[in-house]
Amino acid sequence: MVKKAGYEPRVEAREYWEGLKESKLRIQQCQSCERYVFYPREFCPHDFGKLEYTEVSGRAKVLAHTIVEKTAHPAYAAHTPFVMAVVQLEEGPTMMTHILDIAPEEVRTNLEVEITFNHSYDLEDPLPMFRPVNR
The pTM is what? Predict the structure, then answer.
C-alpha cells in the first residue's frame, strides 16, 4: 500500500475526504448563489458566499484526456497505460481523474462517465475515478 507522508487535509477539505471513504462524492455548494464548487475552499469564488457540502450524482462527461504511458509513482506504475482526464460533473465543476474499464484509445471527448470507488489501485485513501456509463 502506498502511504502518504504525514499529509493532513485542510479543514475545508475534510468532509470531501470523509465522503470518499464512505464511497460518496461530496462537493461544496454556495448557500447564496447555489453554484457547486470543486476543489474544496473556504468561501464561494463566485460571490464569497458560505459553502456547504452536498452529495452529488457522480455522473460526468469527459472534457479532455490523455493516455499516460509511463509514470514514476508506484501506485500507478502497474496500471500503465491509463487515461487521465478532466471531467465535468453534471452539477458543473470539473475534476482531474482516471478513466477506467475502457481501452485507453476508446476514450473520447463528451464520453458519459460515472464515479467508481472500486478499483485496484493500492492507495491508502480512496480517490474518485470514473468509468463509462452502462459498462
Answer: 0.88
